[in-house]
Fold each of these.
Amino acid sequence: MKYNDFCRTDIEFVNVEQMKEACLHFDYKKLVLVMSKRAGVRYELERFVRDLESRYELLWLGESVSYPTQKTLKEGLDALKGFEPEAILAIGGGSAIDYAKGMKAFYHSTEYQTVETITELLQKKEIRRNPIDIIAVPTTAGTGAEVTKWATIWDSESKCKYSIDREELKPDKAFIVPEFTARAGGELTITTGLDSLAHAMESYWSKKTSPLVRQLAVRSIGITIEYLDQIIKEPENISLREKQCLASVLSGLAFSMTRTTACHSISYPLTMQYQIPHGTAVAMTLAQVAEKNSGSFPEAEDLFALFAGCGGIRNYLEQVCGETVSLRLRDYGIARDKLPVIAQSAFTLGRMDNNPVEFNRQDVVEILKQTF
Ligand SMILES: [Zn+2]
């Protein structure tokens, strides 16, 4: 078996002080900080920003970006004009890291980008080459953005979503800081935990699965099943948080080799048209898709066996969501007669066709009905 060096990201598990210390000792002169002003307050990083300012020529992009669009990228790139950064330090959830990847993808020292040129580059799947490093510090445990080479850019007009996907976009360095994830409330903890679970399960049954991928996925799922519930009860327990951070990195590594499948594909219109948080939207169809895929991917019984102790996948999801998160479409203002329209936009190339079983529109409508 050929072993691919599948992750060039230098991943370090550290505490907050170690993260700060390391960030003050990079060999850069010009640094861009992507971190919302709100996050700076929430994670008590005001003093750290001042230290960065005295150590580097710092450009701080402090706008809060959730689900980056061509418009938010253009605003960021405008601010970067003439700055010629050597690195982008992104501290935040998956969106902050995706935003940093988007900036690297389209930054060019002499080119000016408009919403139109960014859209054109997204459509042509072109990126700009530059030597900017990305340092990712995820504050939630689940997106895996710190170890993947892609990012999602959501269309400003909400018509579609784009994916930028290039080796150069994989972060050079990732600091995993469990203390940050301990600031997340119950809902965010659950939705990001479920996103990690979906990454692991989808990589397990993906058409590109491998024994290596399945081992990473099994470990990740096992940790989530064992600890996510506990974390909800003891949100400030850092050693429990560290477990879920590990689960997230493991599932990130697993799906960085396979990409996702039907659940992610079906989730995109749910997030875009109905603002259902990403992790919730992918978890909504996890049990249904698992059942349909059953028997069509290697070592399927080992995957299902992981959930045997909690009464199967559906029961597990209900238990962990409790009263905090609903996985029912009707709770998000979706009318039953809209399901065929949603199904129409549920086919993302590279995701749906990466599912071991082929689904047509009617199959997706059926899956959506079951989760209604
Ligand atoms: Zn995801």
Amino acid sequence: MRFSSIPGLAETKQKLVSSVKNNHLAHALLFHGPEGSATLPMALGLASFLYCENPTETDSCGTCAACHRLDKLILPDLNFAFPQIARSKKEVETEKIDDMANWRKFAMEQPYGNIHDFVVAMGMQKKQLNISKDEARKIIQTLSLKSFEGGFKTMMIWGVEHLHPSAANSLLKIIEEPPEKTLFLLITNDPEKLLTTILSRTQKVFVRGFSDQEIAEHLVSEFQLAGEKANQIAILSDGSMREAYRLRDEVKDQQVQLIRQWFLKCAGLKVHEIFPLVTDFDKSDVESQKSLILTGLFVLREILLKRLSVEDLLRTQDEDRVFIEKISKVLITEEDVPTIYQKFNEAYYHLERNINAKFVLTVLLLDVLKIAQNKQRNGR
Ligand SMILES: [Zn+2]
């Protein structure tokens, strides 16, 4: 994660970069901010900047070996600790639980996620998480070893408010006086829950919530969301990127619903019900129209995989699967998918070139209808 992958927050990035340059970086930093803020991304951005072999004035390069390893969170000198549930050794072995692999996946896929997302991602049922005294012992042990690459070692503790008091107490000394070339990056959305003895030993880095503009711009550039929709989501998200992602998924779900209606109505040859859909489509802005066509292409891909019985590759959830099973039986054979796929692609191409949306969609739906009609006539 580079600083540039984090939307906005220029002032925080600049402050961190100048602390590094002026040698003012403390040996224990506490990244704190509201839920859905960039606390974890910012700590990862700093780690990338520090370990990068070829940093620019303001950021890591993103291309050197260290940056690549850091992107996958497998840099040997960057260690992680996070809340866990108590498990016996036997449980870990028999269930083949790889907490570290799960953590990496979570941190890479949901860097703005909260503790609830983490519990779900880690496949935990119970919620009594903590960073135990045993874990604290491991942290101390890890930091007592020499660095792999001869540089400094970093210990990143995510969800540090979940330190068990006994663990916190045993870490006090090492946070106060860490071994040489050791950096602690502590991360929390809830600093009030931390023991004051830990708080007082850290340099605080406050990561504010995102501005509406930062969220909106990110949604447009990252997910090609229409400007108007992005602005609405930004306002509702109230500074939380986690919430913005969730709302964006809802928008995507609505589009999948709409595409499903199209396919079902085409399959049922319900011509009189299809044209009101064209009118609705025509009313939305061009970015939403393009995004809807992309959703259509995604659904077609899933139908094809279903028809080819390559179900391992299907990405859709349960409810969608039922739809895809149904539609791939009645509407489309695998011979038809490439043709329909091409029609959707053409529609996208024409929308991009500002051809009238009503016209583009009418042509597209007539094409799909024709295929559905042929299929039913031939009883395929
Ligand atoms: Zn680099």
